[in-house]
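Apologies for my clumsy wording, but can you show me some protein sequence, whichever is easiest, together with the matching structure tokens, please?
=====
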Amino acid sequence: MAAVPVPGEPALHLPDEQMLVVADLHYGVEAELLRGGVWVPNRARQRTERLLALVAQVGAERLLLLGDVKHQVPHSSHQQRRDLRRMFAALGEAVQVEVVPGNHDGGLRELAPGSVRFHPVQGTTIGDVGLHHGHAWPMPEVVACRQVVAGHNHPAIAFRDRVEKLHTAPCWLRIPLLAGERYDRVGEELVIIPAFGELAGRTMNREPLTGFGPLLRNGYGDLPAARVESLDGLDFGELRHLMDLRLER
């Protein structure tokens, strides 16, 4: 069993488990931006509707939220709490909701109904797929799976088209895993899932390659050799060959 991308969407499907996986929803980000003086429309309802549509599209019976379901830490605005409760209520009527907490998810359990299943921060395994958010060391059983999935990094690719217009688009990273002192048994690849939240995104070929979780910071993945894929399945090649796409002007 392998997790396969849902065409055109920042989501993974595990058909054998009837499970949909998304990461980095960041409910409450609009309220946090407003605290800093930036107003953007609250898209919480549309985000939830997108999730429900994807659940129906793939026929999922389980929905795994792979961390950073919420955005604001350590405080939690009224808007964030309201949006999260509405989201859990709507999703809970359609699917079994599960959460692997991320670094933004402090206090999330208190906002979720009892029907939501919480996995350890160190991750969980579904068949031969290991899943964790990516901000903390995963348990050895997660890393030993053939395919390891994480969020946290919000990967996107930046490029200029033939008329010199700059574009940025979410992308998948498929990173070869490397064994080391902490994990002597590792799987084949680490798949970094793009952020589901519309306002999250980090261009992998434009910013310094820093700020990753402990797996990549400590050499357990060959990041320059990562395959970069668009949401529609276009293979851009290896990340090390994409660091200069005529971005500087």
The first helix runs from residue 29 to 35.
